[in-house]
Write a structure and sequence with these properties.
heterodimer; A: mainly alpha; 3 domains; two-stranded antiparallel ribbon; B: mainly alpha
Chain lengths: ~950, ~110
């Protein structure tokens, strides 16, 4: 049904499988990775015949239908070509890596990352929706980061990975912006619509910014000048990764996108100049630098940069035939470059170094590998009878035909010939330096041919290079035709894949490149000396580092300016900015502070309560250095706050505030035991006056705001909840129904926060040792008679009653004030009373001491209630209710929301007790209880 | 009545801000508690004031207070407790690690 989604998904499942079987043995991961890839391939292949017949397969799943977004997959010629490259070369890489990785390397981790990459890359090429494409695009950056830094102990690997992620990640953000603009222009994020809207896109005023943003994504990913510098640094990765990600597939994602969006964006002045210009610059820069790299993989990396530039140039030229040549070169480059990287990996593996100044004369030791490398290098140079020659000929021909249309057009054939000369020169160097050129210099090991199966992947690729090179029409023509057709979205131009056409300018350029390349290599010594002298002069990397350091400096400076290591200063800044923002709001308004809502009359009791609260709050501030006194006054303030809730028709809030107040005061009392009993008077008078003034302004502003709101009429959505609470939620207590039903998802988040706070506190208290006082402030010894008999017996009697109350509050919560939060707090208070009155030891003997399972059970129950609705094809946390008739008792209503409320209850009980009991346990640990004799 | 509640919210805010600006951990925690009271009352006030009209569906009720701010504030109260607990434990931890109870971990202010 949704075969394409599965093609993408299977490698992700495979990643888990690979990681899972890794502990069974080294080779299990490799087998699992290989079989996963085969499974994905097996699902893809049945769709291929239809694609070859010219059909485009689109499969979709609703994702965010409200935003017009579907998860949509698309299979056409281009997607098929890339998917086959990804899976086919992937298989070869998996086989190769099994021999490449050493005993010390973790196979499971390597293959799991590789599978993650494979899934992401398949996602890019098979996406119909461009936003979805972007998600996979970023996932390939992440997978590439993990793979480059695979050898985590090496600094160059870590730095290379970070650089690659920074550059391609930043490009990905630009691409997202470009796609959003594109979606706005077209009115759809689907490729089918975008590709059909080319005229409209190019005529739109946003065309230029859209194009530039998308191209930034393309150029960073495909290592185009001036963003090319990350690719050579990515060579710190294991060689299979370089072969797979950084030559055959991931860096092709950029040019894939050029091909994909070719009908939508190409054919303008901006397109040909930006794309063609960047491509040409990359082609030249890459080819030149590659020749001077002494590192085998460095040479191949810059050669990759150069070939990516070649492909980009072809798309920049923008004619249908150039696009065909671009697709052709994508195929050819993937085959010969992957083969060359693998050969380089074998040489590195066998010699222990990649430095071409030391690796010489390997022909004597490994002639077979040498032969394979030579064929692949010939393809890279563009020698006849191998595949690289054919696409390079097409490239030269396109450059020549482009030249005739423009004034300085002749520069293009000249430039590409120069690049061709260097390509031949570095290919010759790769072969001559490594396999001939005297004897090896001081190699760490004596090289010999690698294991049989390590050569198989290289053989397969080299045979492909030859087959395509000699019989292009029989081998590559069908897939190239459908892929190029999908790129153009139009009938294909006539093209003839043959080794021999006629004496043409392109053939002349090929001959010049071959002869020139040999000449440059022959005269390399003075050139090398020149390169040595000019090293580091022109380096885009420097700009990157300067930018990065500037960013760090800015962030560091800003942080230091705001946060000078002083909380007081930070709080001050925070309050002042809040006041500033509030004042701006007041200044801008020209309406009176008081609204026209009818006011409630003041009654005597309320006035008295309010005055009491104000007096108590003032007293708490004035006496705040006497900490115990201030705490008790604060508790009193909290009680008046709960009275306010009672007065203004909020019984649930009153109950919650009341029980929270009790728990908070107990908690703060327990904590105060470990803190100084008084605060020293250390602020100056001026500072206290300043803080007082700020506090008054803040309080005055808040009061004014509250007054302005309270006196204005408003439209509420309360009607919705009041009307539907009983018929749809099955409860009369609307507040509780909102909590456990309408907004159940919020509540689930909130109890999760509470659980996290509890567990965080548990972690903080672990192994925390604080000395408690042995005497009070007046020097009187601490009273060890901790558990007075009368209180102890009373609380024991009260416990069942208190628990019964809690159950009652829990059960009635759906219809009358109460519910899980309040019942949980009441239960917690009842149990804490036991700890206080009877001591921790006595209570632990009777109650489980571990509250983590209670919290976990509560969360699991709440989550399960939500998930259960999926089983009935309803959205998460849909509730239901019904009535059960018990004999004698009568009709009882049962709602699924009650199970959810029970989860809330358990989390509240568990978290509250976890916090308080562990703090209480510290008391026991803070001093050894004196023996009977010591107490006298 | 509205003026009275606005005044109460203002006083609680002022006390909270003043205490939060102190230099020792315990007064700061008390200050946060005061600010929690103020914020919870302020949020509750967004539903305006009604007397004798709890949002519990009943036959013949004249009207109901707005249940939505109440539901928001109910969880806010519980979360405030979680936050207060976390902050006070943090101050205990700081006392243990740094040897004093100054908010910046240094005796000099």
């Amino acid at each position: 049904m949704l075969s394409l989604a599965w093609v993408v998904l299977i490698p992700y499942l495979g990643a888990a499988l690979v990681a899972g079987v890794a502990h069974l043995g080294r080779l299990y991961s490799a087998w699992a990775a290989g079989l996963t890839t085969l499974a994905s391939l097996a699902l893809l292949l049945p769709e291929a015949p239809a694609t070859f017949a010219g059909q485009t397969l689109v499969q979709r799943l609703p994702w965010l239908p409200q935003a017009g977004l579907d998860l949509a997959f698309r299979l056409d010629g281009l997607a098929l070509l890339f998917a086959l490259l990804i899976l086919g070369i992937g298989l070869l890489i998996i086989l190769y890596a099994r021999y490449y990785l050493s005993e010390r390397d973790s196979m499971g981790r390597f293959y799991a990352y590789l599978m993650l990459f494979m899934g992401a890359m398949l996602g890019i090429v098979l996406s119909e929706n461009v936003i979805q494409l972007l998600v996979f695009w970023e996932l390939t950056s992440l997978a590439s980061f993990l793979l480059i830094s695979y050898w985590q102990h090496r600094a160059d690997a870590r730095n290379g990975a970070r650089m690659a992620l920074a550059v391609t990640g930043a490009g990905g953000l630009c691409l997202l912006a470009g796609f959003v603009l594109l979606g706005e222009i077209v009115g759809s994020y689907e490729l089918s619509a975008i590709l059909a809207a080319g005229e409209a896109i190019r005529a739109h005023p946003w065309y230029a910014p859209t194009l530039i943003l998308i191209l930034l994504g393309v150029f960073t990913k495909s290592a185009q000048f001036p963003f090319h510098f990350w690719l050579p640094h990515a060579m710190a990765a294991p060689t299979p990764v370089s072969a797979y990600l950084h030559s055959a597939t991931m860096v092709k994602a950029g040019v894939f996108l050029l091909a994909r969006l070719f009908p939508a964006l190409s054919g303008t002045w901006e397109w040909s100049h930006i794309v063609g210009g960047a491509g040409l610059a990359t082609l030249l820069v890459g080819a030149t630098i590659a020749l001077f790299k002494h590192d085998l993989k460095g040479l191949l990396a810059y050669s990759t940069v150069s070939h990516l530039g070649l492909i980009t140039t072809l798309f920049g030229i923008g004619t249908p035939l150039a696009a065909v040549a671009g697709v052709f070169h994508i195929i050819n480059h993937a085959t010969f470059k992957a083969g060359l990287f693998m050969a380089a990996g074998i040489i590195d593996h066998e010699c222990g170094t990649r430095d071409m100044r030391r690796i010489n004369g390997l022909w004597k030791y490994m002639p077979y590998t040498g032969t394979l490398a030579m064929v692949a290098a010939a393809a890279m140079a563009g020698v006849p009878l191998v595949n690289g020659f054919l696409s390079k000929e097409m490239f030269f021909a396109e450059a020549v035909s482009f030249a005739t249309q423009m004034r300085f057009g002749w520069l293009l054939p000249l430039a590409v010939t120069v690049a061709g000369v260097f390509a031949v020169a570095y290919s010759v160097r790769f072969i001559h330096d490594v396999f001939f050129n005297g004897d090896p210099v001081d190699l760490p090991r004596t090289p010999h041919e690698p294991p049989r199966w390590m050569k198989v992947p290289v053989e397969v690729l080299v045979v492909l290079c030859l087959l395509v090179g000699i019989f292009p029409a029989l081998t590559v023509q069908p897939i190239l035709s459908v892929a190029a057709g999908a790129v153009l979205q139009a009938p294909l131009p006539a093209f003839d894949l043959a080794i021999w056409h006629s004496f043409s300018p392109a053939l002349g350029m090929s001959v010049v490149a071959l002869a020139g390349g040999l000449a440059v290599y022959a005269g390399r010594r003075p050139l090398f000396a020149l390169a040595e002298r000019s090293r580091g002069r022109l380096d885009a990397q420097r700009l990157y580092h300067a930018l990065l350091n500037g960013l760090f400096a800015l962030a560091g400076g800003l942080t230091r300016a705001l946060d000078a290591g002083s909380l007081q200063r930070l709080v001050l800044l925070f309050v002042l900015s809040a006041i500033g923002l509030g004042v701006v709001g007041f200044l801008g308004a020209d309406t009176p502070l008081r609204g026209e809502r009818a006011l409630l009359p003041v009654d005597g009791v309320s006035l008295l309560a309010a005055l009491g609260l104000i007096a108590a709050a003032a007293a708490a501030v004035l006496l705040h250095r006497q900490r115990l006194t201030a705490l008790i006054i604060t508790g009193a303030v909290g009680l008046v706050v709960s009275l306010i809730f009672v007065k203004f028709s909020a019984p649930d809030l009153a109950l919650t505030q009341l029980s929270v107040e009790v728990v908070t005061v107990i908690l703060l009392l327990l904590a105060l035991y470990f803190l100084p009993q008084t605060s020293p008077a250390e602020s100056s008078r001026a500072r206290r006056a300043r803080d007082g003034l700020i506090a008054l302004v803040a309080g005055g502003g808040t009061a004014a705001l509250a007054w302005a709101v309270l006196t204005r009429p408003y439209e509420s959505i309360a009607g919705f909840f009041l009307e539907r609470s009983l018929p749809e939620g099955g409860g009369r207590n609307v507040v509780n129904v909102i909590l456990v039903d309408f907004r159940g998802f919020d509540t689930l988040g909130e109890i999760t926060v509470l659980a996290l706070a509890g567990i965080g506190i548990y972690a903080m208290l672990e192994r925390l040792a604080l000395p408690g006082p042995t005497q009070d402030a007046q020097g009187r010894p601490w009273n060890w008679d901790a558990h007075p008999a009368i209180m102890a017996s009373l609380t024991r009697l009260l416990l069942p009653l208190a628990l019964l109350t809690a159950v009652f509050i829990l059960l009635r919560g759906h219809n009358l004030p109460g519910g899980g939060f309040i019942a949980g707090l009441v239960t917690a208070v009842a149990l804490i009373m036991q700890y206080l009155a009877n001591g921790v030891a006595w209570t632990h003997a009777r109650l489980p001491a571990n509250f983590h399972p209670v919290i976990g059970a509560g969360l699991a129950l709440a989550l399960a209630t939500g998930l259960a609705s999926w089983a009935f094809d309803h959205p998460f946390l849909t509730s239901t209710f019904g009535h059960v008739h018990w004999p004698v008792v009568g009709s009882i209503e049962l709602a699924s929301a009650m199970a959810f409320d029970l989860g809330v209850y358990l989390v509240v009980v568990g978290a509250t007790l976890l916090i308080l009991v562990h703090l209480g346990l510290m008391h026991g640990a803070s001093h050894s209880v004196p023996s009977e004799a010591e107490r006298g | 009545m509205e003026a009275l509640l606005a005044l109460v919210i203002g006083v609680l805010t002022a006390c909270g801000v003043y205490l939060a600006l102190r230099g020792r951990t315990f007064p700061v925690v008390l200050g946060l508690t005061f600010l929690s009271y103020a914020v919870n009352l302020f949020l509750f006030a967004m539903g305006r004031l009604k007397i004798g009209a709890p949002p519990v569906i009943a036959q013949g009720a004249a009207g109901y207070a707005d249940p939505l701010p109440q539901a928001l504030v109910l969880t806010a109260i519980v979360i405030s407790f979680g936050m207060t607990a976390f902050v006070i434990m943090l101050s205990l931890k700081a006392r243990a690690e740094l040897g004093n109870d100054h908010v910046d971990g240094r005796e000099s202010s």
